[in-house]
Amino acid sequence: MALLAAVVLGLTVAPSAEADQYYTRYCPGGITPCVPDGYHHTYCFNGNWDAYWDRAFVHDAMQRFDHQTNYTIENKACGGSDIDVVWLPFNDPNTGILGAYQCVSVGASGRCRNAWIQLNAAKLTNYTHRRHSACHELGHSAGVSHDAPDNTDCLMSGLRDNWSYNNHHITHMNSGQ
Known about the structure:
By secondary structure, the chain is an alpha/beta fold. It has one domain (21-172): Collagenase (Catalytic Domain) (3-Layer(aba) Sandwich), CATH 3.40.390. It is 27% helix and 19% strand. A five-stranded mixed sheet has the order 2-1-3-5-4, covered by helices on one side. The radius of gyration is 17 Å and the shape is globular. Residues 1-19 have low confidence and may be disordered.
């Protein structure tokens, strides 16, 4: 009877956060896992934002990230070595790229110290899609990859409306692997 209960329970349990590859593979020098150096995510804006959009959609995504995860956030002026994420706009109508995350500096711990998130003004033409892409790239900055059994959140690629993280990705982000 206990074996039958275990089999039945096994069929109804949600997939483990260990079932997929947690980390992204974007750290310099091939260092993996590529995860942030702590749970305090500082961010700033660089580049010509005013030519494309206001910054409210990034602040929205950062606030959602703060509320859904164990991370705290802080908007700071660019220029310091303690900036985790630098947000940069670019404008390229000839690429299919909506946004990109890149770790640009790895600390002594082997974790990402500084990263860039770039968003394509030519492709992200409405607030909802900009907010989704900001959420998506921010998830990469917390180490999350696209892979998940239930990829129903903002880590889905493309022009989408969702700007939240599912429980699977939240578990990974909060684990700090």
